[in-house]
Give the backbone structure.
Amino acid sequence: MDIFIQQIINGLVLGSIYALVALGYTMVYGIMGLINFAHGEVVMIGALVALSVIKLLANSGLPGVVIVLIGLMAAALVCMAVGFAIERVAYRPLRKAPKLAPLITAIGVSIVLQNLAMLIWGRNYHAFPPILPNGEHEILGATITSVQIAIIIIAAAMMGGLILLINRTRLGRAMRATAENPGIAQLMGVNINQIISLTFVIGSALAAVAGLMVSANYSIAHYYMGFVLGLKAFTAAVLGGIGNLAGAMLGGILLGLIESLGAGYIGDLTGGFFGSNYQDVFAFLVLICVLVFRPSGLVGEKAAERA
Amino acid sequence: MQFSRVPSITLAVAAALALIGCGQKEEPKPQAAAPVAAPAPAPVPAPKPEVTVKLGHVAPLTGPQAHLGKDNENGARMAVDELNAQNLEIGGAKVKFELLAEDDQADPKQGTIVAQKLVDAKVNGVIGHLNSGTTIPASKIYFDAGIPQISGSATNPKYTQQGFKTAFRVMANDVQQGKILGEYAVKQLGAKSVAIIDDRSAYGQGLADEFKKAVEAAGVKIVANEFTNDKATDFAAILTKIKSKKPDVVFYGGMDAQGGPMAKQMKTLGLKNAKFLTGDGGCTPEFIKLGGEAAEGQYCSLPGVPLESMPGGKAFGDKFTAKYGQIQLYAPYVYDAVMVAADAMKRANSVEPATYLPEIGKTSYQGVTARIMFDELGDLKGGSVSMYQVKAGKWSYLETLGGDVMAAAKDAVAEAKEAVVEAVKATGEAAKATGDAAKEMAKDAAKEGVKAGAEAVKGAADATRGAAEATKAAVEKK
């Protein structure tokens, strides 16, 4: 039984990590209808910037949590600047171009960012210094660390905060208007350029948080970490219904649970015929099934036809 | 006729040294005769032609294993720089080595694309690739093009078992390493039940399979066989499953980027009593960095002997560190791979792949990592495997197993004898005396060192004088 609970916890933690990243994808998609494939790389930059700052301050005598918060602030600022720049350079000039064009520039930006990070931080892996209180807690025989608990809470809080931002604030209303119809929103006095820039900046700040949490959990940061993470998070966003914030959270957690229960039990259930090497296959099988029956994801609304 | 003009003592020393060395044959230099043969009008002291020898080097320079790939490339680069500093002459031309460093991203598909690119660039030889998964498919392309390939790190046995005479490696293969790891887990670590994880790459899977065979042969149960991939960071699910089977030893076939975090997650999940064991891919400083405290006390294996015990290890380590920083893993092996290629070119007196390829098989080269000799498949002869354990945040050497060091020494002696016999044949009947003297000298030198060597040289000098005269007679007869 403790093994089963441990697998559920593994799935929840992994799922929350996917959800943290997926929120960034889904927010940009929700406002602009654009898949920002460079988001995974922004997460990576957030992790590496935070790590550099934390390493710099590690011996300053400040309490660990304060150092991590300073690192997070620095990472958020850098990521916001990067997000802003990505939008200005790679997406804004193509706003009226066919849908495929910004998708290609997104991949281009992601390669550029990856190589840039490789030049700055090198090819080596960076280890996260153990300055956070990362004790292990026992729940019904299963273990969970403090960082992992923080990840689950932060993912949920970020989702809640974003939902409030979009549904309850003036900025959120402008965002929704821009999403609905940019042309008309502009006629109503919404500065859509500003709104779209803000969307990217907020999404990138979230990426910084995600990057920090991921590298704190695995104690690892590397210029390549954004690629696989971005891919999985994108899958989670599509599974939940891309463009829907609650869907990103749901999709992330579901994907995490499928992966961890799949790896844990498929081997035994099939008598060793399928093993944990089929972990990803099952995750994508579920994705395909969901998309066949609900093309816009689990909780995604029907995509409105745009002119 | 050339012989009589050279002071005989110098000749004797040269001949003796050549014979001890690697059966190199002194050949009359063609350019010495050229001025006589060439008609006057041509400018006689023409500048020596310069030949550029292109060596391809392939390793992942981007992606999760980029740190290892760059390490390999630095090893090759250092070798090339040193070779260029020696101003070598091969086949009468001054040679300049050029390294074409390519990136295969540790991806088999990319590996073949890059291989084709190097073949199209008409490289004289290829050093690499790093991963077995990329090396095996690429080896067919090099074989079809007749380009010699020497890998410093691809350890999957399949690489040399495909019947490609162009494929060589300067590291023990996984059959040996897996066997030793398996026996080590059972005997030294006293494992009663073992869990195995591999990354599904040609290397990880191959090593895990060999490990499994050895463990099962020792009658120990494999309680779990799990899988991940070479880009993963989260192993909680498979480790939790393994925890439920309570193994004594967890073996991982894969690279450091996964091994380190895996050891860490094992500890977090409460698999504290199981020992973690991994192969050469995890035997790096990165493993310790990523595993943190959890890396302490874990084990790894690495073909060959530790750098400090390698014949030229310390000097190499100092030079490398001064130039490129910490050695990650395979740099000394790749350095040797380049040197082996250059050595074969020197002996063949040609940089043409078709001409120097047969010489690679006959290699007997004292490298940084070991005395390098190849068996008929192109595998390293008598490769040993060393075990390491993390102690106080550092990999520290435990013991060297297998690959019988004495056997390697015996092989060396046999090889030297063969070389002598060959030399004797080559110089004909008349030179027999030289061969004997040299044989004598080789024995003496091995026993008593330089002093005895000097005496033997004297003897050899006399013998050579006789030989030279005999040769003269033989030439005149013809």
User: Anything to note?
Assistant: The first helix of chain B runs from residue 2 to 5. The radius of gyration of chain B is 25 Å. Chain B has a mean pLDDT of 82. Chain B has three domains: 50-172+309-369, 175-303, 402-478.
